[in-house]
Design a protein that fits this description.
Layout lengths: L1 E3 L2 E7 L6 H8 L14 H12 L4 E7 L5 E8 L16 E7 L10 H14 L6 E4 L6 H9 L3 E7 L4 E8 H10 L1
Parallel strand pairs: 5-6
Antiparallel strand pairs: 1-2, 2-3, 3-4, 4-5, 6-8, 7-8
Helix pairs in contact: 1-2
Length: 182
């Protein structure tokens, strides 16, 4: 369990078939434009998450709210084998991360910050994780601010096949300092 303020989350593995309808509604919403699946069909979402489920270097979890309902999507991956191969020099203990909070008609103040805090805390629960790596679109200023709020340090822009991205890193020490200061 991870807690920030009054928001508590648990995590469970994503089931690509059972969770496909929910994920499809999340990733195709206009708010999820940076997820790059706006035009995805249900079958596309199922296929994409079946591939992740079969991949030893890429994993998907659902964050579960206190009410027991799925609240967000979390992906993590080994950047030496996925996403960032050839774009930076990975170090032992590097873990790549993505997260998605769904659109809502009733936003909760601090929710997305609580989510990213829970995601980063979850990854640092593994003592082998030394540094978390993210590569959001350079235009996604909202996520850059969230990343910095939990300790990510922007390093440089990189060119991925699908986007120009801001490569950023977060160490356990930077995360703990950022959370303590919040």
């Amino acid at each position: 369990m991870s807690t920030t303020a009054t928001l508590t989350f648990a995590f469970r593995p994503l089931d690509p078939l059972k969770d496909a309808d929910l994920l499809h509604s999340w990733v195709t919403h206009p708010k999820a434009a940076y997820w790059m699946m706006r035009d995805a069909r249900l079958e596309d979402v199922e296929r994409a998450y079946m591939e992740i489920a079969a991949d030893e270097h890429h994993h998907a979890l659902l964050g579960i709210g206190a009410d027991g309902a799925p609240a967000f999507l979390m992906e993590y991956y080994d950047p030496a084998h996925r996403e960032l191969v050839g774009l930076y020099e990975p170090e032992p203990g590097d873990v790549g991360m993505h997260f998605l909070t769904p659109a809502t008609d009733t936003p909760v103040h601090g929710f997305t910050r609580a989510v990213i805090t829970a995601v980063v805390a979850r990854l640092f629960e593994d003592p082998a994780t030394r540094r978390i790596v993210v590569e959001p679109d350079v235009r996604n200023t909202a996520v850059h601010a969230l990343n910095e709020a939990v300790g990510f340090m922007p390093v440089r822009e990189i060119r991925k096949p699908e986007k120009k991205a801001l490569l950023s890193f977060c160490t356990r020490e930077r995360f703990e300092k950022a959370v303590a200061a919040a």
